[in-house]
């Protein structure tokens, strides 16, 4: 059943979460959370509208997203907006194999960072607005789940429509789109839910995150006798 309140108010546009820093580098030689947060914050200072959040997604929310993606059957998974990798790590930690996961990241600094952190992953330097072309060029087949941490709230409707339309074209009739919000309502505007024939569901509230967050799932609306619209 769809969430009746998904269209009542505007979602919160900015993530004010702060990760707990640890000095130095991790045991595998990769930058620790403090260096990662500094990189992310620096990118936000340069391009606040494109980055959206001032810090990477915190671990409790990343784990919740990863668990939801892992529970959504088998098949390819695409992450939109890899950033500095907290959600990517959570997806892998949830049991999703490297060969199932493709990460899309448009920021060249983040892309290089991700390639160094995850050398065995397919990490594409591409824009989510060119998702169809990127997936076709790299021969990514039918996608089962798309996991997004793009800061779409406040973006022009045309830009959001383009990303969501291409996402559901890649997902087909059975796939699901996962996203999160820090506000009380769906981050996909009501006008696009109706236009694209999507159903929004609150899948999980992550009270242990700061600020508390909600994981949302989207699928094509079912039409009696005909399957998804």
Give the arrangement of secondary structure elements.
Layout: H1 33-46, H2 48-51, H3 59-70, E1 76-80, H4 86-93, E2 101-105, H5 108-117, E3 122-125, H6 131-137, E4 143-148, H7 157-171, E5 176-181, H8 190-196, E6 198-206, E7 213-220, E8 222-223, E9 227-228
Parallel strand pairs: 1-2, 1-4, 2-3, 4-5
Antiparallel strand pairs: 5-7, 6-7, 8-9
Description:
Helix content is 34%, strand content 21%. It has 8 helices and 9 strands. The chain is globular. The longest helix has 15 residues, at 157-171. The strands form 2 sheets. It has a 7-stranded mixed beta sheet, sandwiched between helices. Mean pLDDT is 81; it is low at 9-30. A hairpin with a 3-residue loop joins strand 8 (222-223) and strand 9 (227-228). The chain has a single domain, classed as Vaccinia Virus protein VP39 (Rossmann fold, 3-Layer(aba) Sandwich), CATH 3.40.50.150. It has helices spanning 33-46, 48-51, 59-70, 86-93, 108-117, 131-137, 157-171, 190-196, and strands spanning 76-80, 101-105, 122-125, 143-148, 176-181, 198-206, 213-220, 222-223, 227-228. Helix 3 crosses helix 4. By secondary structure, the protein is α/β, with parallel strands linked by helices.
């Amino acid at each position: 059943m769809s969430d009746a309140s998904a269209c009542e108010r505007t979602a919160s546009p900015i993530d004010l979460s702060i990760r707990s820093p640890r000095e130095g580098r991790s045991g595998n030689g990769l930058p620790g959370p403090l260096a990662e947060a500094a990189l992310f914050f620096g990118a936000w200072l340069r391009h606040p509208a494109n980055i959206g959040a001032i810090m990477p997604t915190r671990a409790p929310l990343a784990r919740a997203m990863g668990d939801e993606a892992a529970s959504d059957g088998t098949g390819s998974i695409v992450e939109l907006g890899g950033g500095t990798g907290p959600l990517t790590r959570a997806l892998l930690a949830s049991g999703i194999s490297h060969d199932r996961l493709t990460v899309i990241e448009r920021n060249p600094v983040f892309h290089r960072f991700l390639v160094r952190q995850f050398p065995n992953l397919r990490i594409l330097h591409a824009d989510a607005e060119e998702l169809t072309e990127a997936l076709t060029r790299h021969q990514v087949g039918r996608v089962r789940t798309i996991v997004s941490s793009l800061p779409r709230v406040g973006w022009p409707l045309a830009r959001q429509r383009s990303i969501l339309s291409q996402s559901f074209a890649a997902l087909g009739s059975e796939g699901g789109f996962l996203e999160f919000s820090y506000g009380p309502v769906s981050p996909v505007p009501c006008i696009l839910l109706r236009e694209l024939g999507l159903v929004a569901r609150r899948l999980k509230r992550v009270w242990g995150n700061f600020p508390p967050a909600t994981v949302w799932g989207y699928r094509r609306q079912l039409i009696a006798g005909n399957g998804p619209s």
